[in-house]
């Protein structure tokens, strides 16, 4: 039969027609794949020698989903629903043969086949919710008809794929094929169907099991916190409800309505933007193509505290040996003990085996001597955030580390160029700003110093990927990208509580905006005494005064809030009085402050600071800034990051409000020249790339 088009081929083996899709890299459902698949089904149906059809894919995967590069573009070729109808209504049995992943549209195509065969390593899922969408090609209507309402709810709202063995147990897959023998096993399965005269099993004709009103009510309640602020999970739930209570065609109409509502909304646009922005962040402009990286076979970490231990775990988990150094034995023992305890806790949750715990711990060497770092390829300093201490450490490392070793600082604010100047090899120095807890948080700010060598930067980005981090390159400035922007939010939050709001007002508004917690709750969680010195404190800030009366946050049951023994917080009357007294002492007349003002004064200065970061070339792209804030600071992904949010609000609106507050609050609100320029031109911060 031969090729149908560049993406599809039809061959006949005995009485079985075999349609092979081959559209690298992942057989996405672009126009060529859809056209080829439709044409191949038509030909196989028309051939009297073909009694059953096997659909299989070349390359490393089955159909991995929609071609999202087509989103927002004029339609081309046959529509996916028409292709699915051809498969589902074929008068001959169609068997989908699955390897790799069958995700999104890929699984939706497989669900229109009459049977499904998969290799044990295959993964099947509907991940559209992660892009702020729902499966728009019948996935929410067919899936619950096979796996039941409860399992379908879990799959569509989490977006997490299931393995082939689990799929077999739920009925999503009819048979498992041995690894490497999918084609022959699928053909044999199709021949068995023909020989046994099995019926054409249309998923659309099955009944949904377990779709009671109580199931949906309980599911919503159990997941309310996780789904907070997101529109897509609720739309997915409504679709499964429709599948449970409506005929198939009516359920399809409901799915389409809800899909279009999400597709044209801001949240999905934001989540799709973030999907691409994360990949873009890994690309470094002006880095010579093909820059060789340095081998990183052994890592040294200086400091076994919370950060040093967390940083070490990233490498141990990736199978890279680590030597961790502390000055005192008790601190070293405590640090390595916490690493072991963290791994054991992971094992207790079933996410790591006991052997895995020992394997990881076996890669760790504990030492009290910097000399033991002499054979490390990468050394990361995670000591106290004080310039003189860091320079002293790097001066020693310069004498100890082997030639070509990369020397990295985990500083969150300090000048990496000044730290590099303490060595005779500034080209080997880079900032690696991990976020706490470092073994959990995805973000890594890679700080490129003025003299950081290209291969050092390339190696840092490669290592970040190896240890599962999302890396963003930042330039050298106080606080880099994330903390620099955070400082503007903190400044305004602290001013707002003196002017008329209370900490719990600010926290509530920012929580409702989508953050996991507000700035004062976060401060209590971290500890108000971080960086505070009892000897130097003069009661100049509210935080100083809280620490002076031993209100240090959650850890001792009192900070901005009062805490009970379970760390549940309540507004503190004492803190309220302290705020009123402090404001009176400073001569600040208090007034009513609206929720809208809290949002504008906390968020708009961040947008403005991000524009300054871009203007100064401290970030390569506006989208890089958004990736920092989503992965390191809990910015709600459905708002796309501060730069995307500024574009959503409208840069002219942001500019007008900044000028409004500048008139009453002063030059803290002075607009960035770049913001003014883009607002005038109708440009977008999220699309801006530094020249």
Helix-strand layout with pairing:
Blueprint: E1 2-5, E2 8-13, E3 16-21, H1 31-46, E4 52-57, H2 80-88, E5 94-98, E6 101-103, H3 105-110, E7 115-118, E8 123-125, H4 139-147, H5 149-158, E9 162-163, H6 164-170, E10 175-176, H7 182-195, H8 213-222, H9 224-227, H10 232-245, H11 248-263, H12 266-280, E11 299-302, H13 306-317, E12 322-325, H14 329-348, H15 354-362, E13 364-367, E14 378-381, H16 387-400, E15 406-409, H17 416-420, E16 429-434, E17 443-447, H18 454-466, E18 470-474, H19 482-499, H20 503-513, H21 519-526, H22 542-548, E19 561-563, E20 569-571, H23 573-585, H24 595-615, H25 622-632, H26 642-649, H27 651-665, H28 673-681
Per CATH, the class of the largest domain reads Alpha Beta
Strand order, main sheet: write it out: 13-12-11-14-15-16-17-18
What is the name of the CATH topology of the largest domain?
2-enoyl-CoA Hydratase, Chain A, domain 1
Radius of gyration of CA atoms, rounded to a whole number: 29 Å
Alpha carbon gap, first and last residue: 53 Å
Percent of residues in helical segments? Answer: 40-55%
**CATH A-level architecture of the largest domain:** Alpha-Beta Complex
What is the number of E strands?
Answer: 20
Tally of separate domains: 4
- Secondary-structure-derived class: alpha/beta
Describe the main β-sheet briefly: 8 strands, mixed
Report the β-strand fraction as a percent range: 5-15%
Unreliable stretches covering 5 or more consecutive residues: none
Q: Which term fits the overall shape?
A: globular
The number of helical elements comes to 28
Mean pLDDT: 95
Give the CATH H-level superfamily of the largest domain. Answer: 2-enoyl-CoA Hydratase, Chain A, domain 1
